[in-house]
Amino acid sequence: MNVIVSNSSDVPLYVQIKEQIKGAILKGELEDGELLPSIRNFANDVQVSVLTIRRVYEELEKEGFAVSQAGRGTFVSMGNLELLRDSKRRIIEQDLQKAVHNAKLFDIAKDDLYAMLDILYQED
């Protein structure tokens, strides 16, 4: 798992790391039941405090993206599929909000926006 953090970002380190892990889960790069790196190893790899990684794992567990097992580690959890689906939808909704905003800004009609979306969707 390749996680990149920026010390110059306004976003806290734990949030940067957590969002990248969630993104990997949503994209299928991390699979259900997959063991996440140990807190110590992950902290060394990313060059952050073990407390930061502990917080990341705790947040992921609260949000339903991970489950910790004492003595075994922290594992990817896709037990709450509806939560995963909702997270994916929110990502798309955010991008669509930007597109709608720009379309209104550039005076592009809704029908034209639909046509663009239809073409782009068919291209892949």
Automatic annotation (TrEMBL):
Identify the residues that the record assigns to the HTH gntR-type domain, covering every copy. Answer: 11-79
Q: Which UniProt keywords apply?
A: DNA-binding, Transcription, Transcription regulation
Q: Looking at the Swiss-Prot or TrEMBL record, what is one Pfam family this protein matches?
A: GntR
Q: Output the superkingdom of the source species.
A: Bacteria
Q: Which GO terms describe its molecular function?
A: DNA binding; DNA-binding transcription factor activity
Q: PANTHER family under this entry?
A: GNTR-FAMILY TRANSCRIPTIONAL REGULATOR, HTH-TYPE TRANSCRIPTIONAL REPRESSOR YTRA
Q: What is this protein called?
A: GntR family transcriptional regulator
> From what organism does this protein derive?
Ruthenibacterium lactatiformans
